[in-house]
Amino acid sequence: MPPISLHLPEWFVSGGATMWVLAFLSVVALATLISKILQFARVRPGNTRQADQLLDALRQGKPPAKPGKLTSPIDRVLWQCWNNRNLEEAAWQEESLRLARTALDDLRGGLRVLEVISAIAPLLGLLGTVFGMIGAFQALETAGSQVDPSILSGGIWEALLTTAAGLTVAIPTLAAFHWADRSIEQCREKLQDRLSRLKVVRNIHAESEPVEEDRDPAVSHAY
């Protein structure tokens, strides 16, 4: 069976071991990006339809309709917080923050992988270039007085291949990271806004509830 290098482009083989590492990182980054796209398409982190319906119904003094499937983290957290409305104020706020943090942490899964790859891919490419330049100058030294400019030029362009490969991996990975991070940041801002509005509505409902006075009816009729 012929070696696998025979089926690869010459420029890839010329890059050495660094090219294999960068190829592995590119596969990991692509798989992570696809998983984030599928996750965002499924949960729709910016969707606030059912959360807004809940807030509108509460502001109008109407009982909120039973929600459908709560896939959006904003919708899910708002309804969970509303179901916990009978908790004490401090406990309700702590539980609301916990639910919000949990929902956002679920969205952040995989972002660290994209961030790390976008940071180390250019460095790996530069490291491969440095090693390649060292090899090129060693070959030039070995040639002695019989210096052939093609030896140096060929070694330099082969060495620069890893830098180009590292940047090729890092740039789209960094763009993917910022896209996902911005989507989560927008979700966080919307969630914070809806939770603040829910807190106001909850306080209004708590103040408007009738307070039963434990008084003796006979005393009341005495006046």
Automatic annotation (TrEMBL):
Its main location: membrane. InterPro entries: ExbB/TolQ_transport, MotA_ExbB_proton_chnl. It is found in: Cell membrane; Membrane. GO terms for biological process: protein import. It is a multi-pass membrane protein. Pfam families: MotA_ExbB. One of its GO terms (cellular component) is plasma membrane. The chain crosses the membrane at residues 12-34, 116-139, 159-180. Keywords: Cell membrane, Membrane, Protein transport, Transmembrane, Transmembrane helix, Transport. Residues 95-191 form the MotA/TolQ/ExbB proton channel domain. The keyword Translocase does not apply. PANTHER family: BIOPOLYMER TRANSPORT PROTEIN EXBB, PROTEIN TOLQ. Belongs to the exbB/tolQ family. This is MotA/TolQ/ExbB proton channel family protein. It comes from Alcanivorax profundi.
